[in-house]
Design goal:
158 residues, mainly beta, Elongation Factor Tu (Ef-tu), domain 3, two-stranded antiparallel sheet, 2 helices, 8 strands, 5% helix, transferase, YaeB_N_sf
């Protein structure tokens, strides 16, 4: 089996009031020309769930209401996966280019989570006009903006 080495480029900070990403100093030059992008795609490591046991889980009992009784882990957004890599599209509120700090409105990551990579969100490459989803989740919001007011707590079995 081939193995790969990943090197975090920064850290997500979530202190309950502010959310921001701090880049390691050597990666600050990579922020050039991000001006004008309203959202970034952030690849990050589910570091709090990176255990040998968690990496072996391939199926889970119905995590979502109305979902199939058993689901493959790739059909979920669970942090428990063979490679605990996460992807979040985060709204940018401000970028401090001098200090390498990206302020974001929201991200579903814990404090001190490692960031693996950042890419700009571009609708021509990242937006799907009419995506298909299974019936059990077809009532979920169709955008991140609508998700803010959705009662997500009613959708999960945990």
């Amino acid at each position: 089996m081939t193995t790969y080495q990943l090197h975090p480029i920064g850290t997500i900070h979530n202190n309950g009031e502010d959310m921001f990403i701090t880049l390691s100093p050597e990666y600050i030059p990579a922020l050039q020309a991000l001006d004008g992008f309203s959202h970034l795609q952030v690849l990050w490591w589910f570091s709090d769930f990176d255990t040998k046991e968690a990496r072996t889980v391939l199926e889970t009992e119905q995590p979502y209401k109305n979902a199939p009784a058993v689901m493959g882990i790739f059909a979920t957004r669970s942090p428990i996966r063979p490679n605990p890599i996460a992807l979040t599209t985060a709204p940018v509120t401000y970028i401090d280019y001098e200090n390498g700090v990206i302020h974001i409105a929201y991200m579903d990551a814990n404090d001190n989570t490692p960031v693996l990579d950042i890419k700009p969100y571009t609708p021509s490459m990242d937006r799907i006009e009419s995506p298909a989803v299974p019936a059990w989740c077809s009532h979920w919001p169709i955008s991140q903006e609508e998700s803010a007011d959705f009662p997500w707590e009613d959708q999960f079995n945990f």
